[in-house]
Amino acid sequence: MALKQTTGQKITITIVAWVIGLLLFFPILWTAIAAFKTESDAYTLPQNFLTTPWTLENFGIVQERSDYVLYIRNTVIIAGLSTLLGLVFAVPAAWSMAFAPQSKPTNNWSGYTWLAIIFGSGGLAALILYFMGWHPTNFLVGIILLLMFVVPVSAWVWTRATKDTLLWMLSTKMMPPAGALISIYLLFNRNGLVYKDWGWIDLSDYNLVDSFWGMVPLVMLLNLPIIIWMLYTYFKELPVEILEAARMDGASLWNELTQVLTPMAMPGIASTCLLNLILAWNEAFWSLNLTNKFAAPLSFFISEYSSPEGQFWAKLSAASIMAIVPILIVGWFSQKQLVRGLTFGAVK
Amino acid sequence: MGTIQLKKVRKAFGESIIIPGADLDIKHGEFIVFVGPSGCGKSTLLRMIAGLEDLTSGEILIDGKDCSDAAPASRGLSMVFQSYALYPHMTVRNNIAFGLKMAGETPEQIAPKVAKAAETLNLTEYLDRKPGQLSGGQRQRVAIGRAIVRNPSGFLFDEPLSNLDAALRVNMRIFIMQLHKDLGATMVYVTHDQVEAMTMADRIVVLNRGNIEQVGSPLELYNKPNSKFVAGFIGSPKMNFVEGNIAAKHKAKTIGVRPEHIDIVSGKGEWQGKILLTEHLGSDSFLHVDAGDAGRLVVRAPGEFAGKPGDNISLKPDAARIHKFDAQDLSIR
Amino acid sequence: MATNQSRAIGKWALAPSLIVLSAWAFVPLALTIYFAFLRYNLQDPDNTSWFGLSNFYYFLSDPYFTKDFINTILLVGSTIIFTIAGGVGLAVLLDQPFWGRGIVRLLMISPFFIMPTVSSLVWKNLIMHPVFGLFAGIQRFFGSTEPIDWFGHYPLISVIIIVTWQWLPYATLILLTAMQSLDGEQKDAAAMDGAPPLSYFRYIVLPHLSRPITVVILIETIFLLNIFAEIKVTSVGGFAGNLTYLVFSQLNDANDVGAAAAGGIIAVILANIVSYFLVRIVGKNLEG
Questions:
Q1: CA distance linking residue A313 with residue A40, whole number of Å
Q2: Inter-chain touch A101–C281, beta carbons under 8 Å
């Protein structure tokens, strides 16, 4: 609403906007100040924040007591690797949907046929389990469920038109984690569902809970729909003719992807990575439920301060600042591109 | 070598048929232009030759070899795209060299070829720039450079000049014709502009709704169009078509006379009319005439023609140059 | 347009993502459905048996279910109302030219990048603490002797405040983007027609915002249904828990896999109702 403004109006708006902006930012600002104060001064903020002395001791103590470096290393590993792994899956998928789209389903079975196939095979799986006798540590359970559910569902989505495939992918993001918590928890647990001694390889000592082998793929899967979606919208804007020119020039698919598409789409890929990094960095549900020391990220590190360490405000503040500053800076730089990923493109 | 043969080439997307079946023989070294209104299938046909679209049925032979299912790069053809399709992240040098690199040539083999192509195209001083720093005409030349450096047996052009301004377009037209003469390679050129088609082509292929209406030299098409569509499409301004009684006198459903084949006569001509509008181009004047039964006609007059809107004039078509069409819009010869 | 060849390659390029996503979406869900019909407690894993619909019965008749269900609705509903109302206001404000607009914009959207565990603890301790917190200080400044114990007496409201603070930037960012996409000529035409600012807002801006608002509502609903860290970290689960927290506590505190699974299924059904509408809106946009 850029209606004509007088200077007076502009001053008023400037003041109002700055006041609201600072109010919203105040909790962060205050945390930042408290982080540099002694423990006793932190309690009496903000009335005397200018007069009390500044100190860096909190950061050292936080590192000493709860090993900040370990947690930020874990966070970087989980966020970084899950982003890279996500790109490995998402770049080919987004390329395929943007440049080789399927305008119609490739088979013409009705939706009911598919429903019958999926539920039929699921029901069959249940029957097999019933007659085999259920035991929670049966390796076959995993394999059978995997085949009976994943194969028909994948086949169904695979034969859909590109548009429907994309929507299906988005809808997996909407699945509440509460629905998967129990299964994932049991699947990841050492004594959980999957029988881990397969003769030729013995994984029975291996525990996916509190392990990067569990967290990295999990966080990748959480964000994969968003990565694919964002890359798809970026790829859509690139001219197809350039890829065709590469094909005429004799580029193989690999060269087309690595030497032409990826460099051209670099800005889009970069902002996709940033969004994914932010989401992975701040992920809390699975981090709190599935990690506790070895592979725990910063979300978990902070939650340890809820009590009794939370009573030490300067330390809590220092720890909080150390946890949020890296990603806050990333967020500030990428805020313009985030809109696209955060609305699934539903707002132009 | 650079012969291209299309045999009953057919393209359909599900129910909608883009090209019902095209047959065409392109000889080595020929400059062939596909022309037609937008949506006539000319680009699709070119892309099928390039290997960027599938054939629904039929065969494409390149140098006598069946290439219907071959990968684009293995057909020995180069293509220049409408949008130039340069790789934006590569320098001009790398753009030109990319195809050679993909073919597995060594840098030592590539460098002289790129240098030679750049020299031909006056691009030597721009070799280290990115496409974004070049003007439209320069980009166009890079696109052509990328095509010639691979030394293909044939070139495919997909409306390459439509993004250039009018003056540059004329220059590039001459440049491409010169290139054709120098290289002697087969060229297939798609355009919707019949002037480009007439000036450049050895043979023109006129397409209408996916059908090849007529193939022939520019003058053949101009003088002996097979159908009303070709007659109307070739020539500028458009041929005048007259139906009804006047056409019936010539035992035809429709007759057509080009504006340049109607004379303005003093005294009584065949048709009487009143000038509605005049367009003065300097060399010529085009008169839009309301000619009563004959309908509205466009007539070419000399540049210094003095008639004004509202004047009455008499018109006399050149009897030998009247084209007759039957009820199916085909020519009666 | 592509050839059959490239489309075939494309199909296979899509396959890895499809397989991992369908495994992710369906295997845990299938197992959860299975567990929902079992009597299965981790403290007594050998004594596992078929339980029919009893898990659902126990989960639904648990007094915590009713309470947490209402909490969930209150949490989601009020946060959405506050963030939309605040977001429209902030978006209008940020759409005006003023000095330092870029910086104010960064300040306003910052809370969105703060991890939920951090914002929960900062709010709980530094701001809402009954003795040393900022709110208590403000109350004392105005003469109150007994400041409010936010998390002690109003746990749900406290959580709503934190979550609203976190999600307000999101609504602002989306609505601001939508508002800036409003055609400049339309603004000029309205100015030429002499529309006063209020009716300009009422008749031109608000209708333009209706779709983005719908999108914000749906997306926030999906994320807010799953609020967890804010409740767990502030230890108010017993008073202000939501369904997600209840599922967690069935597993974590009661070790009851069956009941937790039944709760998870109920959460999935609720989320699916919302995502059905969201997917339709996104799908319509894909066609345009």
A1: 9
A2: no
Residue of C nearest to A98 (CA): C10
Instruction: List the alpha helices (DSSP H) in chain B.
Output: 42-50, 92-102, 107-120, 136-148, 166-183, 194-200, 218-223, 228-233, 245-249
Contacts of residue B51 in chain C, CB cutoff 8 Å?
3
- CB C271, CB A174: distance < 8 Å: yes
Q: Does B53 touch chain C (CB under 8 A)?
A: yes
pTM, to two decimals:
0.83
Put simply, whether C145 touches B (Cβ < 8 Å) is no
Residue B140 near residue B171 (C-beta atoms within 8 A): no
ipTM of the complex: 0.86
Instruction: Please give the class, per CATH, of domain B4-231.
Output: alpha beta
Residues 139-158 of C with CB under 8 A from A: none
Contact C169, C84 (CB under 8 A): no
Which pLDDT tens digit goes with each residue over C31-81?
788 888 888 887 777 777 778 888 888 888 888 899 999 999 999 999 999
Pick the more confident residue, C192 or C125.
C125
Q: Is the peptide bond before B237 cis (omega within 30 degrees of 0)?
A: yes
CB B183 within 8 A of CB B148: yes
Residue appearing with tokens 């495919």: B156
Nearest by CB to C22, which of A154, A323, A348?
Answer: A154
Give the span between the Cα atoms of B73 and B52, in whole angstroms. Answer: 10
- Closest Cβ–Cβ partner in C123, C168, C212 for A347: C212
Percentage of chain B lying above the pLDDT 70 cut: 100
**CB spacing of A241 vs B85 below 8 angstroms:** yes
Nearest residue of chain C to residue B51 (CA atoms): C3
Residues 32-71 of B with CB under 8 A from A: 50-52, 71
B182 part of contact set with chain C, CB < 8 Å: no
Residues A317/A326, Cβ–Cβ less than 8 Å: no
Enumerate the residues of chain B whose CB falls inside 8 A of the CB of residue C4.
54
CB contact under 8 A, A242 and B87: yes
SS3 state of residue B274: strand
Q: Are B315 and B242 in contact (CB under 8 A)?
A: no
Rg of chain C in Å (alpha carbons): 24
Domain parsing of chain B, residue ranges? 4-231, 237-332
How far apart are alpha carbons A306 and C231 in whole angstroms? 11
B63 SS3 class: coil
Distance CA B75, CA C139 (A): 82
Tell me which CATH homologous superfamily contains domain B237-332: Nucleic acid-binding proteins (2.40.50.140)
Closest listed residue to residue C263, CA positions, set C83, C111, C19, C58: C58
pLDDT tens per residue across span B162-221: 888 888 888 889 999 999 999 889 999 999 988 899 999 999 999 998 899 999 999 999
Using an 8 Å Cβ cutoff, are C168 and C82 in contact?
Answer: yes
Q: Establish whether the linkage from the previous residue to A308 is cis, with ω within 30° of 0.
A: yes
Beta carbons of C41 and C258 less than 8 angstroms apart: yes
| A contacts of C68 (beta carbons < 8 Å) | none
Query: Which among C251, C253, C230 is positioned nearest to C241, based on CA atoms?
Result: C230
| Residue A82 in tokens | 């899950």
Q: Does B54 touch chain C (CB under 8 A)?
A: yes
- CA distances A277 to A270, A292, B254, C273, Å, are 10, 21, 71, 29
Which of B149, B87, B158 lies closest to B120 in space, CA to CA? B149
Q: Phi/psi zone of residue B236: left (φ > 0), alpha (ψ -120 to 50 degrees), beta?
A: beta
CA distances in angstroms from B284 to B197, B277, B321, C143, listed in the order given: 22, 14, 20, 96
